[in-house]
Design brief:
mainly alpha; 4 helices; two-stranded antiparallel ribbon
Length: about 100
């Protein structure tokens, strides 16, 4: 084999990561316990981030349907606008506000 294609051996229990060899922890439970203990001060921020993500997902699901309903309500008043009626009398703004 040439120098460039030479196989590299990895240590037992490890694998190559982006920066080199990644080794498995000797005590998995203790490692998780340390990680949880370290991140306890970040719990409020994590909860806020999860809530924001859940609300954002909900709005992405519900939003387009509500926008469709609002657009349909506005479109009902467009023929009256073409005939020269003012916007206030043509479009039922109370219905649009209730949908919103």
């Amino acid at each position: 084999m040439s120098e460039n294609t030479e196989k590299r051996q990895m240590p037992m229990g490890g694998r190559r990561g982006m920066g080199g060899v990644v080794e498995k922890p000797k005590n998995f439970k203790a490692t998780w316990a340390k990680l949880i203990e370290y991140s306890k001060s970040y719990v409020p921020a994590i909860i806020i981030a999860l809530l924001a993500a859940a609300i954002g997902t909900l709005l992405q699901i519900v939003g387009p349907d509500k926008l469709k309903d609002m657009t349909n309500e506005i479109a009902k008043g467009l023929p009256a606008l073409i005939n020269g009626k003012p916007i206030i009398g043509s479009i039922d703004m109370n219905a649009v506000i209730n949908i919103a």
